Amino acid sequence: MRSAFPKAELHCHIEGAANPALVQRLATRYRVDLDGLLDRRGGYAWHDFASFLDAYGRVSSVFRTRDDFRALALDHFTSLAAAGAIYGEIFIAPDIAAEYGVAIDDYVAGLDDGIAEAEAATGIVGRMIVTGIRHLGPEPVRALAGWAAANPHPRITGFGLAGDESQHHAGDFAEAFRIAREAGLGLTAHAGELEGPESVRAALDHFAVARIGHGVRAIEDRALVHRLVEEGVVLELCPSSNVALGLYPDLAAHPFRRLMDAGVRVTVNSDDPPFFHTSLGHEYEVVSDVQTLGQSALGRITRTAIEAAFVDPVTRGELLGRLPAA
Ligand SMILES: [Zn+2]
């Protein structure tokens, strides 16, 4: 999709977006062995969910200082802007950074520095969604929500839940989402990706989220699709990610268009781009070429993303003003 076409992204994990060239540079500095991590297609090598998590951990391990995270966010938002994005949100996971010895204050400050620098240089607007990891269990997720509530930050505007959605009952995380909601954060949760429609329903019932990360398997349940339409829930769809993880045999089989045609509010996203050999620009191309959606539908997708963005009303109005008239 040509770079002049305005785009926006709501679903991208910042370490999962790390440019392999940057990762190599930091690995050299810290003498980290990357043997077997990089593949011939310019991305990261993995073959199943366990090796995906392992590769993700190896990439995360090279980011250690505030300045490393500044470089990570700067690179990500600069390349998003070059692809035509006017807005981007990133999932940030302090619990993963902590596994590599990074203090939460350095993590957030470094990412914030990088976003500010990219905003000043390109005009892109960026926000962060502090994200709990479901398979670590309810207590760390609740603690993270408590941290976010106690440490308001102008660029942390959302709270999310990622990780293995088969672990724990959704109700166990309800308290974390209650804390985040009362702190005024926008809410999203991964659901209906590796698990089925019941997982999406549980997220809606227990978390009262405005958006669902993926949620793509709602298509298997007509009543749930109807509920998503009725309640105006926005799906953060990531077609290449779903194909790479084996949900669908190919991009043509992805239900992006079927969900959109059913009236569900959908957005298009890259998730963990170098892990899936994709980019936001490429995902717009997939939706255009493989799912055969025209320019007006693509424009509607960007508009939906801005309408569902976790931003204040003034920023939303400013971003909507940058889009061509609907
Ligand atoms: Zn994701």
Which strands sit side by side, in order, in the main sheet? Answer: 1-2-3-4-5-6-7-8
Number of domains: 1
Number of strands: 8
Which percent band covers the strand fraction? 5-15%
Total number of helices: 14
Alpha carbon gyration radius: 18 Å
Q: What CATH architecture label applies?
A: Alpha-Beta Barrel
Distance between the termini: 19 Å
Contiguous runs where pLDDT drops below 50 for at least 5 residues: none
Mean pLDDT over the full residue set: 96
Quaternary structure type: single chain
CATH superfamily: Metal-dependent hydrolases
In terms of topology, how is this protein built?
Layout: E1 7-9, H1 20-30, H2 49-60, H3 66-82, E2 85-92, H4 94-99, H5 104-122, E3 125-133, H6 138-150, E4 156-162, H7 174-182, E5 186-191, H8 197-207, E6 211-214, H9 222-231, E7 234-237, H10 239-244, H11 256-261, E8 265-268, H12 280-290, H13 295-308, H14 313-321
Parallel strand pairs: 1-2, 2-3, 3-4, 4-5, 5-6, 6-7, 7-8
Brief synopsis:
This protein has 326 residues and is α/β, with parallel strands linked by helices. The chain has 14 helices and 8 strands.
Structural notes for this entry:
There is one protein chain. The chain has 326 residues and is of the alpha/beta class. The protein has a single domain (7-19, 66-321), classed as Metal-dependent hydrolases (TIM Barrel), CATH 3.20.20. It contains 14 helices and eight strands. It has an eight-stranded parallel β-sheet with strand order 1-2-3-4-5-6-7-8. It is globular and about 50 Å long. The structure holds zinc ion (ZN).
